[in-house]
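Quick sanity check, Nucleotide-binding universal stress protein, UspA family:
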Amino acid sequence: MVQASNVPSTAGSAFTRVMLAVDDSDATIRAAEYARALFGDRAKIRIVTVAQNPRTLFPLGVTTQGFLAVAREEIVDDARAVLGKFGAMFPGTDVEFGLVDLSVHNGNTVDAVLDAASHWQADLIVLGARHHHGLLRWIEGTVSEPVMRRADCSLLVVPENSRVPTDRPPESIAFALDGSACSLCALRAGLQISTPETRLRAIYVVDRAVHLTDSTPNVQLERAFLDEGCTTLERAARICADQGRYAETRLIETHETRDDVPHTIMRDFAQWNGDLLVLGTHGRRGLARWFLGSVAARTVRLADTPVLLIRRRENSHQSAENGTHAE
């Protein structure tokens, strides 16, 4: 039985144009389920797949033009079938479709996904992750991670081995904050897919394993982390309250050695038994701004639940900063 989204529609939502990138993998099925649960009745949906160029799939010198033509026709037919299968998962929804044939278009799968999202002006790309290669099974680390690094919009990454159900909206959402305006944008965006019943948690990680310079005393550095963490969590609580939501907050610390921010986030998230983790991806590292793309990517690799990566668009920079200062 298809379960439609019960997330309330919100004017001015952060996600009004959602692009689902699909192949024929189980990971993509879980991603499509989650996209339907969250956005099926509250956003425009476009389902896009990529048909590989047979020249890149078979060894040079052992194929004829006739063989390549037949292979291309089969690959394109398979891609159309994939679009039909996933379209059937959105009954009653006005879904758009896109098929990128790499025999015609230059580039690779990553370029094709990014170009399709940019051309359609997607707010969000939904990807399945961690699956093995096949003719159409390209949503894996070799695709999802470059898309994470290069995309201009936000991403929702759904692992094939997700420990939480993907056929319904999350019952608990955690926000990992780093003190930057970007992470607060992520908090605001994530709140828009919550309900009054959703459990919310905001965390700030004090990175005790980092050493900026040999001349910086550890006590002084940790004090700076703690001060900013407390300020950030207080601000997050106010943002939630302004939206009629309550979020528990917690300041957590990495171990002093053999630890890092992604592992600390995932330990806390697992202990809390969260369903969806929300991160900002354009933070800039100062004393406590640790959400560079590499941290977000490593966190996604560790996650066994969906992860929402919020990328602040450049034209929203000033408004986000103004909102931060106003609080």
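Posting the structure with no commentary besides this: Residues 172-326 form a domain with the Rossmann fold fold (CATH 3.40.50.620).
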